[in-house]
Amino acid sequence: MKKLVLFLGVLMILMFTGCGGKKEAADTGEKKLKVGMVLSTGGLGDKSFNDSAYAGLVRAKEDYNIEFNYVEPASISEFGQFLDDYAAAGYDLVVAIGFNMESPLKEVAPNYPDTKFAVVDAVVDEPNVTSILFNSKEGSFMVGAVAGMMTKTDTIGYIGGIDMSFLNEFRDGYVAGAEYVNPNIEVRSLYVGGSNPFNDPAKAKELSLALKNNDADIIYGVAGGSGLGLLEAVSENEDLYAIGVDSDQDGAVEGKVLTSMMKRVDNSLYTITGELVEGKLENGVRMFGIKEGGISTSEFKFTKDLIGEEKLAKIKAIEEKIISGEVVVK
User: Where is the ABC transporter substrate-binding protein PnrA-like domain positioned along the sequence (predicted)?
Assistant: First the structure.
């Protein structure tokens, strides 16, 4: 069904450019650039990675007057076909979301040398690919410091989608930040795993309760759509708090999500789309950290009073030290 939706969407765009394109060109004097995005599994509504990516291109569509379409694959096996579909349909930029896109994009990109591609959280060394990476350790260090200051048990938790080096960078930064402010801290880590690690809220809720039963009172979830299970767990347990990831999840359970480590996929995609429109988009690796506007904490909208001005000032000071280089998150 999703392939049919994509096909119909592409067909409508081709019909538009074939039939109504002359009128558009007469009105604006220029052709709209087309951007297609293949989301990661879990799709929209994850309040995390995919939602952030979508928000960035929606903003780019409004500000740069581009055509924008997206597709939500049901499984990893569909990634390559959807990337190929967009490129074959003549899209100017095809965006691949997530590290699992690396292998499919390596196969597709060389077949379309005149099409520009961008991939988030992976490196594809092709002359027509922009690889977008984030210094997630910096943001995880920040939220780890929040957890280290706020825990009442000196025990905090981490839930990852799978146990792999890329995701463990989040865990490592989180541990380092917690230890930076609280030398007595213990961090317990569990992983969702299974056949759909980034879209299994039931398993993430089970792991959240297991961590709670082992004294963890704050849990950082880095598991895409599975993280909804963590949010459900904190909503049902008065003495359990969450830290969100990728998008601002603070409002999902007001007052129970201390902060969110915002990996600003939205800002990165907005930036490279602007470069595309200006004819300045180049291939290669782009790294977005706190200093580059690619990483931040959320605004503590619902937890300012709970955390308190003194701790918030310490968190701000840590951020400034990271930007200046005084604190280096290795």
Answer: 35-329
In this chain, the answer to whether the domains covering 2-134+265-288 and 136-263+300-324 adopt an identical fold is yes
Encode burial over 150-179: b for 16+ CB neighbours within 10 A, e otherwise.
bbeeebbbbbbbeeeeebbbbbbbbbbbbb
7 contacts: CB under 8 Å, gap ≥ 6: 85
- Contact between 129 and 119 under an 8 Å Cβ cutoff? The reply is yes
pLDDT digits (tens, 9 = 90+) for 182-216: 999 999 999 999 999 998 999 999 999 999 999 99
| Helix, strand or coil, per DSSP, at residue 86 | helix
Fold of 136-263+300-324: Rossmann fold (3.40.50)
Q: What end-to-end distance do the CA atoms of the chain give, in Å? A: 45
Q: Describe the crossing of helices 136-150 and 165-181 by its angle, rounded to 10 degrees.
A: 40
Domain ranges of the chain: 2-134+265-288, 136-263+300-324
pLDDT in tens, 105-142: 999 999 999 999 999 999 999 999 999 999 999 999 99
Fold for the domain defined by 2-134+265-288: Rossmann fold (3.40.50)
d(CA 190, CA 197): 12
Please, which pLDDT band fits residue 247 given cuts at 50, 70 and 90? confident
Contact 105, 122 (CB under 8 A): yes
Cβ atoms of 135 and 290 closer than 8 Å: yes
Contacts of 200 (CB under 8 A, 6+ apart): 192, 194, 225, 226, 229
